[in-house]
Amino acid sequence: MSRSLLKRRSLLQKLGAAAFLATPVFRSVLAEAQGAAPLRLVLFHFPSGVSMTNRAAEYSVKDSTWSYDHVLGSLKDIQSDILLFNNVTFPSGEKVSTFTELEGHGGGMRTMFTGSTDHASAEVVDAAKQYGSTSSVDQLLANAIGSRTKFGSLQLGAVTTTNGTAEGRRCIFNNGTHLEPVEDAQATFARLFPGAMAPPAPTGSMTADPQATAELLALHATGKSRLDQLKAEVTAIKAIAGMDEQSKLDLHLTSLRELESALPQVGPGAGGAVFQGVTCAAPNVSGAPKVNSNAPLEASADYMQELGPAMQELMYQAINCDLTRIASFQWMSTGENNIYPFLGVNLTHHTLEHAWRESDATKAMYDKVQTWLMLQISTFIKRLKATPEGNGSMLDNTVVLIASEMWGEHVHNEFISLIAGKGGGAIRTGRTLDAAGRSNNDLLLSVGNILGLNATAMGDPMFANGPLNLG
């Protein structure tokens, strides 16, 4: 038997017949040469719920405008990347909302991403005691794995400071300390890309460690060498293969070339390669408006149509340049008192949150604002999906959790939420999951565990029953 045929048989045995015929990617080589892409978490606050399709209906996700035919219309074309939820309960929000002066607004904000009831009343003067040891899921992860990047986490937002009630603005906590979202585009740019006048050259994520860098360079070289070897073997097999097998081998060669180009860039870091996207660049935010936190109630929020996208682009590039893998974005606060002339809406968001039942006109205005907000979020999600990574996209390795703190009338009958992204393959998207009454605590725990958090419960243990099965 010829040496070439032996080589061909050896390669076939290594691949496995099923794998060879079914997939154009050398999965073992992917793991060996490229390594697993990093997982990322992005939290989005979507303010104050949605309406029902029928103004007289009871609050229920399945009967609401939280669907691809209404508010989620901008996500319809990528619904295969989305996991919707039905019947997730929100008991921590219900409990904390009974505290003095919190109602559904402040209670929902405090618990949306924490599931915690370790809070004092809003009347507590000592701020150090007001939030106990509460931490949101992003901060638990930042404390566990945030040292791998320059910024352990980022908290950004748009129109979050114009609500006169502080309790309506707070949803991200680290061990009892509230982390205020930043909505100053120029200050954020300067922090992320210091000294940059134009898109900067890619940089590492931490202070250089010469030994770690040398090891990464060696690993990179080993991966490229292994790919070169396999490309040579497949090319040799092509010379003796039949026509049917040659087309399959061509697919393998194409995949190997793609793997070679996708080898992670190696830079100084704290124990891992820097996974910078091909579009890593300092965005232009020079025209982003400043926020007037002293604006009177019912002032125009027209500036949000420029500020919001600019802040989201900064968050995208921070992730794309591997400056952070954990971020939150707060669209407005709850009970927001701005109006939206650029959408033709001259009632405040707070008014619409509660008054959409009163007439078809108020419902239409509320739906218009909420649909516009989701369009902005969908733009960010699609940026991740359009960014190549490995054999897929950056969205495939990200968990984008979008949630709302309450429905109108200050209720928490269901937790309004969805996930975009597959979390590295741990999440089966393109469907709606009936959580059968499980709590948002369990949903947050599921997300944390997928991202590598070693935890058995999230928030108040009274409402924790273990992670949901998202796969």
Defining key terms:
seven-stranded mixed sheet, two-stranded antiparallel ribbon, globular, 11 strands, alpha/beta
Report on the structure:
This protein has 471 residues and is an alpha/beta fold. It has 2 domains: 3-34 and 209-261, no CATH class; 40-207 and 285-463, Alkaline Phosphatase, subunit A (3-Layer(aba) Sandwich). It contains 14 helices and 11 strands. The strands form 3 sheets. Strands 3-6-1-9-10-2-11 form a 7-stranded mixed sheet, sandwiched between helices. The chain has a two-stranded antiparallel sheet with strand order 4-5. A hairpin with a 2-residue loop joins strand 7 (388-389) and strand 8 (392-393). Helix 3 (27-34) packs antiparallel against helix 9 (210-238) and helix 7 packs parallel to helix 14 (440-450). The longest helix is centred in the middle third of the chain and has 29 residues, at 210-238. The radius of gyration is 25 Å and the shape is globular. The relative contact order is 0.21. Mean pLDDT is 81; it is low at 1-34, 197-213 and 262-272.
List the helices and strands and how they pair.
Blueprint: H1 3-15, H2 17-22, H3 27-34, E1 40-45, E2 82-86, H4 91-96, H5 103-111, H6 127-130, H7 137-145, E3 154-158, E4 173-174, E5 177-178, H8 185-192, H9 210-238, H10 243-261, H11 304-320, E6 326-331, H12 349-355, H13 360-385, E7 388-389, E8 392-393, E9 398-403, E10 417-420, E11 431-434, H14 440-450
Parallel strand pairs: 1-6, 1-9, 2-11, 3-6
Antiparallel strand pairs: 2-10, 4-5, 7-8, 9-10
Helix pairs in contact: 1-9, 3-9, 7-14, 8-11, 9-10, 11-13, 12-13
